[in-house]
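Shipment paperwork, digital attachment
Item: protein structure file
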Amino acid sequence: MRKFLLTCCLVSFVVAGLWADNDNWSLYQYVNRYFYEHFRYPDLDSARVAEENPSLLRVIGEALHFIDPYGKEYAYEGRVVVRYSIYDRGRISQVKVVNGLCPAIDKKVARVIKSLRYERFDRAYRGKEYIQAFYISPDGSIRTELPDNAVQYSPDQAVEPVGGQEALDDFIARNLNYPKSARESGLRGAVNLHLLVDKEGFVLAGWVRESEGAADLNWEALRLAGNLPQMRPALHQGQQVISSCSIPITFRLK
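Attachment content:
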């Protein structure tokens, strides 16, 4: 009887874990759908954009689009990664762009997500902090990387950092900004990032539980996750798939 009860408990923990993953996936789908229904590509004046970000045209890997004074057409293309939290009352808050394209686009994306603050989310989503990527297309429209099918949680080949774990550790060491308040208070520890990686190897979404670390450490870990370099995507039956992975971020004081 004792063995039977223990087995039931273990099964319930596994099922609860699967439901947690599915719940978060449902949240991403909802926010993603809301974003694509409400986002409108802003009109960009080239002089204003250039004034706000003089190095805009020198950014590598992005097609930067607007109408310049000579009538030449450009357009923005790329990912905007937004960080937000859902606390005990079920409201979205603490919305901030952690990886963007340009001030005008970033501000518009953040405003759309902030407009969700009147929505009350179920308990399954509360007490967590999230990041989520939104994709801007070259023609000024938007596209989604969140299909209706489930994430492949058991791929034939898991997500891997380009260059291996050593390269990932080096990136984290070079880019981690220890929060000043946490450093002054002697706060340290590890934050376990739960990530979804898209078919191209970029972080699509992620979350941490509020209880995993102090808010400052969680926020910094998510900022870092939103800026992770492209990885090798998971493979399943010879196809690149959206999959999940976990990355621990350790904060140590020297």
